[in-house]
Write a structure and sequence with these properties.
With about 575 residues, the chain is an alpha+beta fold. A hairpin with a 2-residue loop joins strand 5 and strand 6.
């Protein structure tokens, strides 16, 4: 049963049969032009069905389109047949296909669309095509509103495949009450030398993504890595070496040396440093989810590099959903084993928390935004069937796989093997300087990791919230590796200072210090919203800050886990090397 549920979910996620995507046409075969969405240019995610505006269609018969993948439904793809007759390699001169008469309601709708710079998106052979509804003419003092009524398609073909589509909007007509507006189109076919596998290159912007500042940011981050690795190495090779020599002396230390020894106080807490973290269930669930998110991000980046996922509609999100579901055992294994090593007994509750914590946050935010989408009648409203599908994936795929991982983790890696014995009574934590407090360390811990990625954040934000297609996943992989290294190094340094202050609460401190990177990313998203975009309105604002909060949360869980894991290796190393009396 579990196996078949997994296969059905994978089939729905990946979708699309091979026959439907061979993109081969014979002469005069029908080429379907799909109308997708229409919406204000400055609010990319605020989209509506194309025929929500009072456009007319040509042919009355319709061709039904179903959501090929789960990601299409989640992204608000609502393809409707345009009604235009287009045949492969058959030129069509200017031909009227429908006519509308502007009553007051239609005029208001079109005027509102033109005033708010509405644009629309179409698909022809899976190639996106964009057009503008109309334009405003203010030369006469008072603004006049015009609509483009003629669509001119220039389609390039190579052999039996379509490799290029260009749309030119012509013949503007003033939006005057009771006027009759005829809509026309023409199609010109041209032979092209563009290869089919290269047909998406025209949508990329190498001048933007491969700008000099992009390379400079990578170099700057790389230098930061060298500095931090050198700093950590210095701590390990010099400071700790002195500490080892000091603590390994057999002779008794005098009072002055004991006073000086307070500066090297990390050994003083050897009996408490491996004490289980407070709220062990939540902590282990976060770490387990962090392992899973890290694997998902790395896998999707590699798949994007190898498979050019940006060329297929919704394929990136489909891949992410599939990989997240398939890697659920990773979550269960590492979260369950950590909870067992911390002495946790309520393992079923911990497993449920690990399995559903992140999906619940994502679905909760998505459903909240969905209510706003329904109120606005936006295409981003998630259909009920899609909600059921997501719920089934969580219950019948993610939950069983997390259970399997948890059972394996508890049995294979659930026994505590700490190098130091844990004292029965917790050691009092002495007072320390304000800058050594865990809260201060947490706030400062995310500064350098954020500094290593904030330029890449600009490119990622621009590709998602503006009209750029992100394709430089090699850059992203490099930045991902740099972020991991910087996060581990910074967290190790922070933990060393904390332990030196004889504060053994390093688990949550290391996790939160690394996770605080996400707080700086979320603050940067405010700057980006107000100074780099022209977004407006309740729907777009809620969509932007809601999903940026989810992005920052996932980034925080990932960075927190990486920081904690790196620090735990460091802590085990130093306490296993020192001679403990």
């Amino acid at each position: 049963m579990l196996f078949w549920s997994f296969l059905l979910s994978v089939g729905f996620i990946l979708g699309a049969s091979a026959d439907e995507h061979n993109h081969i046409y014979n002469d005069r075969d029908e080429v379907v032009l799909w109308m997708n969405t229409v919406g204000p240019y400055h609010n990319r995610q605020e989209t509506y069905a194309y025929f929500s505006l009072p456009f007319c269609t040509g042919r009355k018969e319709t061709i039904n389109h179903y959501h090929e993948t789960l990601s299409e439904a989640l992204q608000g793809v609502e393809l409707e047949f345009s009604g235009l007759d287009i045949e492969f390699k058959a030129d069509i001169s200017s031909t009227p296909y429908c006519e509308i008469q502007l009553n007051e309601e239609r005029q208001k709708a079109f005027v509102y669309a033109v005033k708010n710079h509405y644009w629309y998106q179409m698909y022809l052979d899976d190639l996106p095509v964009w057009g503008i509804v109309g334009e405003v003419d203010e030369n006469e003092g008072t603004p006049s509103y015009y609509i483009w009524t003629h669509k001119k398609f220039d389609i390039g073909y190579n052999g039996k495949q379509i490799v290029d589509v260009n749309l030119t909007s012509e013949n503007k007509v003033k939006l005057t009450l009771d006027v009759k507006i005829p809509f026309t189109y023409e199609v010109n076919w041209k032979k092209s030398n563009v290869k089919f596998e290269d047909r998406f290159d025209k949508y990329l912007d190498p001048n933007f993504f491969q700008h000099r500042i992009h390379w400079f940011s990578i170099f700057n981050s790389f230098m930061m890595v060298i500095f931090l690795v050198g700093l950590v190495s210095m701590i390990l090779m010099r400071t700790l070496r002195k500490d080892y020599a000091r603590y390994s002396k057999d002779e008794e230390l005098d009072d002055m040396e004991r006073d000086l020894g307070d500066e090297y106080g990390w050994k003083q807490v050897h009996g408490d440093v491996f004490r289980p973290a407070s709220h062990a269930m939540l902590f282990s669930a976060l770490v387990g989810a962090g392992y899973q998110v890290t694997v998902v991000v790395l896998s999707v980046i590699i798949f994007a590099i190898l498979g050019e996922l940006y060329t297929e509609r919704g394929s990136l999100l489909s891949t992410a959903i599939f990989v997240y579901a398939a890697t659920s055992p990773v979550n269960g294994y590492f979260g369950g084993s950590l909870y067992a090593r911390m002495g946790g007994k309520i393992w079923i509750r911990q497993m449920l928390l690990s399995a559903f914590m992140l999906p619940a946050l994502v679905c909760g935010t998505a459903f909240f935004i969905n209510f706003i989408s329904i109120y606005y009648h936006a295409s981003r409203a998630i259909p009920f069937g899609t909600m059921v599908a997501v719920t089934c994936i969580c219950i019948f795929v993610i939950l069983p796989l997390t259970l399997v991982g948890t059972v394996l983790g508890r049995n294979l890696a659930g026994q505590p093997d700490f190098p130091c014995r844990i004292n029965a009574v917790p050691r009092p934590i002495p007072e320390k300087k304000w800058f050594m407090e865990p809260a201060v360390i947490v706030v400062l811990g995310g500064v350098l990791p954020f500094g290593s990625i904030f330029i890449e954040m600009y490119f990622i934000f621009t590709s998602f919230w503006a009209y750029k297609i992100y394709y430089v996943y090699g850059f992203m992989l490099l930045v991902f590796i740099i972020l991991m290294i910087v996060t581990v190094c910074v967290t190790i340094v922070c933990t060393y200072f904390l332990l030196n202050a004889e504060d053994y609460r390093w688990q949550w401190t290391s996790f939160l210090a690394a996770a605080s990177t996400s707080g700086y990313v979320y603050m940067y998203s405010f700057y980006y919203f107000f100074f780099k975009t022209k977004m407006y309105g309740l729907f777009q604002t809620a969509f932007y800050f809601g999903y940026m909060a989810l992005f920052s949360l996932a980034l925080g869980i990932m960075c927190g886990t990486v920081g904690y894991v790196g620090t735990s290796v460091f802590v085990r190393k130093i306490y296993s090397t020192v001679k403990i009396d």
